[in-house]
Amino acid sequence: MEVLVVLVVHAAVAWLVLAPLRPGHSGAAEAEESAEHAELEALKEAKYREIRDADLDHRTGKLSDADYGTLNRELRAEAMELLRRLDELEAVRGARAEAGVRAEEAPAEAAEPAPAASAEPAHAARVRDDDARRA
Amino acid sequence: MLTAGKFLLVLALVLSAYGIVASVAGARTANRALVDSGRRAVYGLALTLVAAFAILEAAFLRSDFSFSLVATHSSTTTPVFYRATAIWSSQEGSLLLWATLLSLWSSGVLFVTRRRVREIAPYATAVLCGFATFFVALLVFMESPFQGLSAVPAEGVGLNPLLRHPSMMIHPPMLYSGYTLFAVPFAFAVGALITRRLNADWIRTTRPFTLAAWFFLGIGIVLGARWSYTELGWGGYWAWDPVENASLMPWLTGTAFLHSVMIQEKRGMLKVWNASLVLATGVLAILGTFLVRSGILESIHAFGASTLGVPFLTLIGVMILASVYLVVSRAPDLRSDSRLDSFASREAMFLLNNLVLVAMCVIVFWGTFFPLISEAITGEKASVGPPWFDRAIVPAALLLVLLTGIGPAIAWRRATVANLRRQLTAPVLVALAVLVFVVAIGATKPTSMLLFVFAGFSLGVVAQEFVRGVRARRAMAPESVPVALVSLVRRNRRRYGGYVVHVGMIVLFVGIAASSAFQKSSDTDLRPGQSVNVGGYQLTYEQPTSAVVAASNGRLERIDLGATLRVRRDGKDVETLVTKRSYFPSMDPTLGPISRFFEGEATSEVGLRAGLLRDVWTVISPSLSGLRGRIEEGDKVFEGPGAKLDEAQRQAFLAQALTGLADSYRRNPPPATFRTIVSPMVTWIWLGAIIVFLGGLITIWPAPRASQRMVTAGYAARVARELGRA
Amino acid sequence: MDPSRKRTIRLVVALSAAVLLASALIYTSFTASTEARSPSQLLAGAVPGKSYELTGKVAEGSWVKRGAVNVFSVRDREGHKSVPITYSGQVPDPFREGREVVVTVTKQGDRWVGEKDSLVTKCPSKFQTEAPKT
Q: ipTM of the predicted structure?
């Protein structure tokens, strides 16, 4: 019984720990992308929180109009930049899906990049939409 | 299973050492596979330690006395719940629990961040594995939980009856969870400093763990205080004992850190401060773990002077040196993005809050280590007692309560007079109302009065925040007040959860102030029928009580001697309180079988009437002088003719003798000493703590996330619309 | 006043406040502290009326309860010199002869009086000192 427990644990642990070192372990490129995606998502959430905080501070009188104006513009610009980077990432993923490397759930629209000019107001609108959706 | 346990610990040691090497090597050579392997080593470590812990736990539950630990900390008469939790009443078991919890939280944070902060994570993994290696090495080489006994005893020594209280058994796991969780932000801070990635990302990522650490450590501290109040025959909840202080210090710096990171996130300031604070918190957490088991300070908690002093001090020394080196060498990367504009600003108030909390930590540290400090300076070991601590902490606590109100109300950057007037008028009025009330009910102590006034002010600020927030919400969306309140809190969990925590802390402070300043107590001897007057209550010793209690397996567990007291106020009956003292037998074979019961451990059962306004607390200390004669006679009987009896007969006679003793106590009760305490608003302390933890839960609860699909759909719709227009 | 001068002033004020508070802390702790003594040290020389923190073991056979007053002796950890203490108030739950205790005492006349609620009994690390019976 004792021997069995010890062997089982040793075997499980050895398999777990040495798996990444075996050749043919899952693609690094996808892992990188998914990492960057998670990172950007988290930054986006944090940015949205900051925008909401600033809004509440302004409404309850803790941020002057001038300060709020500047801060709000800054934060929204940063949020839009994040959205743009997320889109870029999604475009790459979409392209890869089309190439058939892996079945992804990226919608086809993402593969057609919208013209740069209309991307700006679209991003700003998305920031507003995302914000409202958190009600 | 002893060998299995030993093998598993060695495996754990190998894994944690491998984790360090693989993570650092992988980071330096940009080898993702190695880094992944290092991270998985932590998962494997958790698996291994949980298995080892399970083996030990199983041994306790089935009372396997071939395990030395089980034989010395449990017995067949110990109830199942306490058998399960007796593991961590021992040095070895508690170290194993510490290591297991560390490995579990480490696995958690590394899993959650497996795709985030990828440059920092490997170094954080190495640090966490470093801690694990230290603790597992202690378990393998110095304090093994898997020591065996060659001669297996028939009965174990049993759990110290003082520990037989649910609070007491949950208290260590809560504390250890707090300490081990603080290792997480420590490790990530070190990683961030090493890699010079010093924006707020690592703070954001580890925030849930920092909050959880603060949360669990806080629960552990409050449970300890509550146990002290309801179980010990002393009547207090905090003694400024070195071990109590050791758990408070990292909690104070942790609280400071949770506040100052908000400044870093908002204005990019205080980076050096934050890094230093989180590193200090990690050091204090290890220091706390060390103090309990070191024996270097006189404390009620000491596990006993042990050989672990040198390894722990070495670890602490290494942590301090490394922290100082990292912060100093990375100072250019830690420069602030902005400066403090005005003293009348939220940034300044948060900084002041931090300074007060750190000052409190310094005070507690100084007082705790004073015996060693004074010995180093004057050659004499001297110590400071609770009065010194109280006197030193009170001004800081007052300032803290005041800041709890000013902080949320004041504007960022620079507050104008108009701004201050708008924010502070209503709370100041509340404070004045409280002042009038307090004077009217006849309170005269200035520090208490000041606390109540500041508390009124700060509670007024919180109420105002909620009111204004709901109003702002309703201006944005047509919602009823309750719905607006809920959505306000949901969308701003951090802020409003924080406000709830503030409310809880204020209630807690008010409870502490009232119960210590206005307490009445007395120690008196009473015969049945006699009364004592304390704090407006009259307590009458009604009847003696006694009982002989056997465990579920038939073995005699203890003898109880107690009393019932009738409590009256203004002539009217209020309650009947029951208090008793339980005597557990010693295992010393040189003592007679009956006197053994009165030479072992004794615990008190407190008679407590807890109310919202007042607690009536009483505990009995029975006099055994009347029973001495019978006890000695009984012992002689067992020595002489009783020696020829077999085990079952001995037990039967012992039961009879003890029952006779109990009966005679009831028939001829000698006067007993009663300690009675009437303290106002003690319940507010526990209520305040509960509110704090509810607020903590609100803050920790993950916010709802808009799903990716929705975002893409929104964008797609937008793009379609734009394209359609173009 | 230009900003950097303002900052310097703030820094000076803050540091001065810190120094003042630290001095207050240090001063009060040294004046309010009680020196630790073992029983033999106490018997060797003690100032009447001054408080000392006595550490040692409760001498076997010395504990007598007289109503609400407890009388016991504290002896050296390794040794036999002991000091008889009069302690009014209840002793803590773990209090036992042979256990290590810490108590604040003052010499009044030729008696040693223990300060109320200052008695701390060390929780034994093991339930008992002997190996369990087989």
A: 0.85
